[in-house]
Specification:
By secondary structure, this protein is an alpha/beta fold. The protein is built from 11 helices and 7 strands. Helix 2 packs across helix 9 and helix 9 packs antiparallel against helix 11.
């Protein structure tokens, strides 16, 4: 299955995505503002690959003048229903439908890896004002939590992908892999957790791109087995999920 097919699979699961996907901790947004060198309040921000508006909501609540950029029709419709006051434009990071030097900040929450940095970096620099910033972040797996590591390996196995290791990329490698070499970049990792009903946790699993392209019967079977395992671990039906939010902020010279 191609990465393009996996990316567009999200469009079939907009409601599940909105219901199950985690948000981001306040400390992450604090770091974005600090490393961007300006308050989010009043900043002109484009949230690219906005999905159902998880990060868009946080940016708007901080007072940013935010526009959402989203390629998927179902995702964009779900975002508009949630945030009718936020402009939504169709597009992606490889060809931004935004004017030159028009924004203070571009954000990519869980979406930069769907772009081609050879195209998306020049596009970001085109759209940013001088001194503007590009912020990329992901909720990553807390491999030091045993049940989370075990589940990560089971999901990788059923999806036919290589599980990640416990070792995280160092700062230089993270910058290189993101295609940001040559730009001033800061990196921060913010550990956080949330406690959610088991159904929400399972819905979150069901929104992963490699999982979404599995046959529907395979998805259902895996989630039934996972529910049984987790009921033993969390008999009260509430699951504590732990994440490490990985943030890169690049400044336009």
């Amino acid at each position: 299955m191609t990465s393009r097919a996996r990316a567009h699979a999200f469009n079939t699961a907009a409601d599940r995505y909105a219901a199950g996907r985690p948000s981001y901790p306040p400390a992450l947004l604090d770091r974005v503002a600090q490393d961007a060198g300006r308050s989010l309040s009043g900043a002109r921000v484009a949230d690219v690959g906005a999905g159902t508006g998880i990060a868009t909501t946080l940016l708007r609540d901080r007072g940013a003048r935010v526009v959402a950029v989203e390629p998927g029709a179902a995702m964009a419709a779900r975002l508009h229903a949630l945030l009718p006051d936020v402009p939504v434009v169709r597009g992606d990071g490889n060809a931004l439908p935004l004017a030159d030097a028009s924004h203070d900040l571009l954000t990519y929450a869980q979406s930069w890896h769907w772009t081609d940095p050879a195209r998306s970096v020049p596009e970001a620099l085109r759209v940013l004002r001088p001194g503007g910033a590009l912020a990329l972040w992901w909720n990553t797996t807390a491999f030091d939590v045993p049940w989370i590591l075990a589940q990560h390996r089971r999901i990788a196995r059923v999806c036919g992908v290589e599980p990640q290791s416990r070792i995280r990329y160092d700062d230089g490698d993270a910058v290189r892999r993101a295609g940001l070499s040559g730009l001033p970049v800061t990196r921060h990792q913010v550990r956080w957790s949330r406690t959610v009903p088991l159904a929400t946790h399972l819905a979150n699993i069901g929104t992963r791109s490699a999982f979404l392209v599995l046959p529907e019967y395979g998805q259902r079977a895996f989630l039934r087995e996972e529910e049984a395992r987790l009921r033993e671990l969390f008999p009260d039906g509430n699951v504590e999920e732990t994440y490490v939010a990985d943030l890169l902020v690049a400044t336009r010279p």
